[in-house]
Structures are given as structure tokens and as C-alpha cells.
């Protein structure tokens, strides 16, 4: 049966791949986007996840279009990389506000309708750097690590209502973010990945699709790495 799905930051990269994967599985998929245009074939809602008003309005539009969201994928995120010694406070707090507090706003708005329906899936997109660390990304790593504690605490709160909360932790993925790297940089990255290559967005999307499926009904509070082995042991 088709479910109402909302993917934040779903107009490009991992978010777009997730949205298309779930749509291909038969779900009614809506995406939020902050700038540009919505992707063709998907219901798009302009939304800045740093605004509670935007998030609430986006959910209302999705509910009116395709019903209450039964699957929510919190994917929207930003980077502002620099070494801590020269990082200004805005560069730290803005990344936390988008990546971590943004996920809080989205999950908070999603939870009550799911609780009334006694079922749902919340999936947060973190990163391998949440556990591995990354020089120049103290802000980003902190935000992505925070998602894990947030997800596991929320999983304990709402598990009795048949709502699962899980985290996907991608490694390096072939997106606009990695496309700007030079060939030497990409080669250096591949050299430290046991599988020797950068992931495709669709590989992350298929993991999200699994967590959103009935096959994953007994999985909650999990962190699933999709990183080619880069973060193993962490």
C-alpha cells in the first residue's frame, strides 16, 4: 500500500536518490528544498529546516497533498569546513542548527501523527565522520554525531507505538559535494576506503529503502554504515 513519505533536502544528491528509490517502490514521495526547483515527478515543498514555521508549513502541505507522513527521512544538511582554530561561532552554530536542530524540528513535527497512527519510520542521515572524526569538520562531525544520540533516545521514547528510528551513516558519496574535489584528492580518499571506491547515492538510498520497509520492522536505534568499510571499528 502506498505510504506518504517526506524526504528533507530531497532535490539533489543522497536525498534525491532516496526520494526516487521510495517513489519507485510505490510510495507517494514529497521532498523539501531550500533553493532551486523541485525535482521532476516529485511533490516539492520549499522549506528551510532552520525555521520551525517552515517545517510546520511543509508538513501541512504534504498532509494536504498525500496524507500524514508515515516515513520521514531527515537528510537536509550543510557543511562549513575549516580548522577549529580559525572557525567562527556562526560557522559552528549554523551547521548544528541545520543538521542537528533541523532534524529535531522535523522529527518533532512527524512524531504526533505517527503516534496517533501507531506506526511509522523515522530515518536520519548522519555520516561516517560522526564516529571516525574529520580534521576541519568539528562542526559537521558534532552535528552528525548528535543525530545518533538523538535517534537512539527517540527510539526508546516511541518504540511502544510501533515507530522505528534509525540512522544511516554514509561515507564518501558521489555527489556535488565530492565532485568539486580534484582527482588527486579523490584518489587519496579512495586509497583509505577498503572497497577502494566512492559510493553512488543509490547505494545509500537502497539502505534507506530497507529501513523504511516491513523487512526492517524489528530494527530500531541502529546505525547502519554505508561507507565501504571506512569507519569500521568505530
TrEMBL record:
<keyword id="KW-0560">Oxidoreductase</keyword>
<dbReference type="InterPro" id="IPR002347">
    <property type="entry name" value="SDR_fam"/>
</dbReference>
<dbReference type="Pfam" id="PF13561">
    <property type="entry name" value="adh_short_C2"/>
</dbReference>
<protein>
    <submittedName>
        <fullName>3-oxoacyl-[acyl-carrier-protein] reductase FabG1</fullName>
        <ecNumber>1.1.1.100</ecNumber>
    </submittedName>
</protein>
<dbReference type="InterPro" id="IPR036291">
    <property type="entry name" value="NAD(P)-bd_dom_sf"/>
</dbReference>
<comment type="similarity">
    <text>Belongs to the short-chain dehydrogenases/reductases (SDR) family.</text>
</comment>
<dbReference type="InterPro" id="IPR057326">
    <property type="entry name" value="KR_dom"/>
</dbReference>
<dbReference type="InterPro" id="IPR020904">
    <property type="entry name" value="Sc_DH/Rdtase_CS"/>
</dbReference>
<feature type="domain" description="Ketoreductase">
    <location>
        <begin position="3"/>
        <end position="176"/>
    </location>
</feature>
<dbReference type="GO" id="GO:0004316">
    <property type="term" value="F:3-oxoacyl-[acyl-carrier-protein] reductase (NADPH) activity"/>
</dbReference>
<dbReference type="GO" id="GO:0030497">
    <property type="term" value="P:fatty acid elongation"/>
</dbReference>
